[in-house]
């Protein structure tokens, strides 16, 4: 079927082949001085996203360390600064003072099932629980005071793409699976847990949690999180329809349940439009399935009326390894929402097609 995701076995085999290609091109060396973990690790090439598996020209890149990839030319150049931890599935933000901070992540495929045995994942050095900040003059620095299992540990796969934003108070606010937290990046760093967001994955209540959910800050200090209810790619669980607004303008986060989406979705994409509405595209009704479980309809959430409107149906499935954005460079021409999945299978649609179904 066109647009059907590869099976997990086929995807793993393809990734293994591409990692072998990287091994042939670059000198990988085992290192035992992995300062933020408890086990030896591998230092590998680094891309511009400094730990992401999304910016490398290969669909399945490696945990990255000491080079930069220029996506336009695929040119890789060496970077003298190295992070202390491997960072697959990490999150990076720019702090108010301009410094990048990176949080979460794991060794390559090291903790996909960390939720099943968190202690083993920690003892094996498979997760990155200590954030790092980039100092312009000296490079990466570990924030040892911000080491946190509750924010970045393997429990409920909290390390996997922690949702994080700069809060109005200047700290970093985050949602890691079922936990909420604040990170103070000053000095050695500090994390304080702000309570539970929801429960863990549940086949009955289907909470909108985990790395299979999607979240955006649609207004200053106001966040919308939708969909999810899974711990990893292919986790066999039904998807969530739920949507929650998290207001972080006060001293503590305030949660309010929004109207649920029409479609339950794991791995959707959320895009904030210039008028403050939120477009949700892609996803699947179960695990990372295609076929009858794939969700093609777009949905548009209005924060004023707290209501959802169905949009047009996409031509291609968009699930794991997909993205959607509203490119600023195209604003002068016409309003476009751009969506893509790995191997650059992309489409771009005007709001007339995405949002005004049937008109």
Question: What characteristics describe this protein?
Answer:
359 residues, Methylamine Dehydrogenase, Chain H, 2 domains, four-stranded antiparallel sheet, 4 helices, 9% helix, disordered C terminus
Largest sheet features: 4 strands, antiparallel
Shape: globular
Low-confidence stretches: 1-8, 25-64, 329-333, 343-359
Total strands: the figure is 23
**H/E element sequence:** HEEEEEEHEEHEEEEEEEEEEEEEEEH
What is the CA-CA span between the terminal residues?
Answer: 29 Å
Compute the gyration radius: what is it?
20 Å
- Strands ordered across the widest β-sheet: 5-6-7-8
Q: Helix share of residues?
A: under 10%
Overall mean pLDDT: 78
- What share of the residues does DSSP label as strand, in percent? 25-35%
Tell me the count of domains: 2
**Secondary-structure-derived class:** mainly beta
Describe this structure in words.
By secondary structure, the chain is mainly β. It folds into two domains: 1-197, no CATH class; 200-359, Galactose oxidase/kelch, beta-propeller (Methylamine Dehydrogenase, Chain H, 7 Propeller). It is built from four helices and 23 strands. It has a four-stranded antiparallel β-sheet with strand order 5-6-7-8, with no helix packed on it. Strands 9-10-11-12 form a four-stranded antiparallel β-sheet. A four-stranded antiparallel β-sheet has the order 13-14-15-16, with no helix packed on it. The two termini are 29 Å apart.
């Amino acid at each position: 079927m066109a647009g059907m995701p590869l099976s997990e076995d086929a995807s793993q085999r393809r990734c293994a082949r591409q990692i072998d290609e990287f091994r042939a091109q670059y000198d990988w060396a085992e290192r035992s001085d992995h300062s933020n973990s408890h086990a030896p690790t591998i230092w590998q090439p680094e891309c511009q996203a400094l730990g992401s598996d999304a910016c490398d020209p290969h669909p399945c890149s490696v945990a990255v360390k000491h080079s930069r990839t220029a996506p336009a030319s695929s040119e890789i150049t060496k970077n003298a600064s190295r992070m202390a931890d491997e960072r697959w599935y990490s999150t990076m933000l720019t702090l108010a003072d301009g410094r990048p901070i990176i949080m979460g992540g794991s060794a390559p495929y090291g903790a996909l099932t960390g939720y099943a045995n968190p202690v083993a994942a920690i003892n094996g050095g498979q997760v990155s629980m200590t954030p790092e900040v980039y100092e312009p003059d000296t490079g990466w620095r570990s924030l040892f005071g911000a080491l946190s299992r509750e924010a970045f540990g393997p429990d409920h796969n909290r390390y996997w793409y922690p949702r994080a934003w700069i809060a109005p108070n200047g700290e970093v606010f985050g949602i890691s699976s079922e936990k909420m937290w604040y990170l103070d990046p000053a000095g050695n760093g500090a994390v304080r847990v702000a309570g539970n967001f929801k429960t863990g994955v549940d086949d009955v209540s289907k909470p909108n949690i985990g790395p299979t959910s999607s979240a955006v800050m649609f207004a200053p200090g106001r966040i919308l999180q939708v969909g999810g209810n899974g711990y990893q790619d292919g986790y066999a669980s039904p998807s969530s329809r739920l949507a929650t607004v998290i207001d972080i303008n006060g001293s503590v986060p305030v949660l309010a349940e929004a109207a649920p989406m029409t479609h339950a979705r794991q791995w959707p994409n959320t895009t904030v439009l210039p008028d403050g509405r939120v477009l949700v595209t892609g996803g699947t009704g179960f695990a990372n399935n295609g076929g009858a479980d794939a969700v093609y309809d777009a949905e548009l959430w209005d924060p004023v009326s707290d209501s959802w409107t169905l949009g047009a149906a996409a031509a291609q499935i968009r699930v794991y390894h997909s993205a959607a954005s509203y490119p600023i460079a195209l604003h002068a021409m016409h309003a476009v929402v751009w969506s893509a999945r790995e191997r650059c299978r992309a489409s771009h649609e005007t709001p007339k097609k995405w949002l005004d179904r049937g008109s």
